[in-house]
Amino acid sequence: MIFIILITIIIAAFMIRKFHYDTDTIIVVAVIALVIIGFGWYISSTEKGKRTIKDFTSNVSGGIPRQVKVYDIKGELIEEYKGTFDIETTHNNYILFDDENGLRHIIYFTTGTVIIDELEQK
């Protein structure tokens, strides 16, 4: 967070100097700096911000290591998947993911339970 603030101050000072200390420029640069600092705080200090970063990382890197366990209505394990993949959830009671072999899995969980755990990265 301190790194973001320091870079923002350096860029703001450079822009103010380049545009000859114009009052309007100083105000615009100050507002932009505050927005950048606020965004940096949101991303690094809130749980929703941390989840946003994890979601973005998962989307651009092909997923994160996960384990998916599918149980029937009686609680017995039906299927288990392990690998690095991104999971898409919907409001239609199913999850969708492509495994490491490129095979697509659509799991409907209206009569059972699906547990998705993130695995430690090696």
Model description:
This protein has 122 residues and is α+β, with helices and mostly antiparallel strands. It has two domains: 2-45; 62-118, SH3 type barrels. The protein has three helices and six strands. It has helices at residues 2-18, 23-45, 47-61, and strands at 64-71, 77-85, 87-89, 94-98, 104-108, 113-118. The strands form two sheets. A three-stranded antiparallel sheet has the order 2-1-6. The chain has a three-stranded antiparallel sheet with strand order 3-4-5, with no helix packed on it.
Mean pLDDT: 81
Broad structural category: alpha+beta
CATH architecture of the largest domain: Roll
CATH class of the largest domain: Mainly Beta
Radius of gyration: 22 Å
- Give the terminus-to-terminus CA distance: 27 Å
- Give me the number of helical elements: 3
CATH fold node name of the largest domain: SH3 type barrels
Report the major sheet: 3 strands, antiparallel
Beta-strand portion reads 25-35%
Number of domain modules: 2
Number of strands: 6
Helix content: 40-55%
In N-to-C order, the SSE pattern is: HHHEEEEEE
Topology:
Elements: H1 2-18, H2 23-45, H3 47-61, E1 64-71, E2 77-85, E3 87-89, E4 94-98, E5 104-108, E6 113-118
Antiparallel strand pairs: 1-2, 1-6, 3-4, 4-5
Salient structural properties:
single chain, about 120 residues, alpha+beta, SH3 type barrels, 2 domains, 3-stranded antiparallel β-sheet, 6 strands, about 45% helix, about 30% strand
